[in-house]
Amino acid sequence: MDSSHVEKDLTDILFTEKQIQDRLAEMAGEVERDYAGKDLVIVGVLRGAVMVMADLARSLNRHVEMDWMAVSSYGSGTKSSGVVRILKDLDADIAGRHVLIVDEIIDTGLTLSWLTKNLASRNPASVEILTLLRKPEALTMAVQAKYVGWDIPNEFVVGYGLDYRERYRNMRDIGTLAPHVYS
Ligand code: PRP
Asked: Cα(105)–Cα(113) distance, rounded to whole angstroms?
């Protein structure tokens, strides 16, 4: 979906489809250099990371295994509960392999902080994080991301995998949701 179809729901466009593709291509270049000659598994965190995984993987000019995890952050409650549950685990055995977790956003950091520890306990050669977006002002947990597309303000962003009540995930651009939509 082009963002023009939901123009009234957005206060601005933060990143266009072109900007996102260009940044992912740059990050893919860094990943290629850093993991040259190494066995690499990229792990997408469902569901928001689907777009980033698809575009990052296609920008990587090398073999890469793609696997997925689904976690329920925070149960049915709010982010403050700090509870993370595995809904779908990896298919791959990652022991001795290099793992790169791919997500579209680090908000409080709870999900990826927990996931990094969980995957590290499976004896991989390494575990690192690639995220398209990060909200430094919202971070409550220490999370070291090796690759960050952009740091953004603590605003409600949608598009390119990011949803509000399951809508806007399929928008090509990333935009800021207008308060009248969620208030
Ligand atoms: C989003 C996003 C991250 C997480 C970040 O997923 O994909 O995994 O939240 O937030 P945190 O840093 O505060 O933990 P969400 O739980 O909304 O699920 P979704 O990917 O299915 O939209």
From this structure: 13
> What b/e readout covers 74-102, taking b as 16+ CB neighbours within 10 angstroms?
beeeeeeeeebeeeeebeeebeebbbbbb
Backbone angles phi, psi at 131, to 5 degrees: -130, 140
Terminal-to-terminal C-alpha distance of the chain: 24
Ligand 1 atom 2: residue of nearest CA = 105
Q: Report the predicted TM-score, pTM, of the whole model to 2 decimal places.
A: 0.95
Separation of CA 37 and ligand 1 centre (Å): 31
| 74 has a pLDDT exceeding 90 | no
Indicate the Cα dihedral angle 179, 23, 119, 138, nearest 10°. -30
Rounded CA separation 152/132 (Å)? 10
Ligand 1, atom nearest to 48 Cα: 20
Burial 109-136, CB ≥16 within 10 A → b, else e: bbbbbbbbebbeeeebeebbbbbbbbbe
Specify the pLDDT at position 79.
56
Q: What angle do CA 136, 179, 73 make, to 5 degrees?
A: 50
Give mean pLDDT, residues 48-61: 98
Alpha carbon of 4 to ligand 1 centroid (Å):
25
Length of the chain: 183
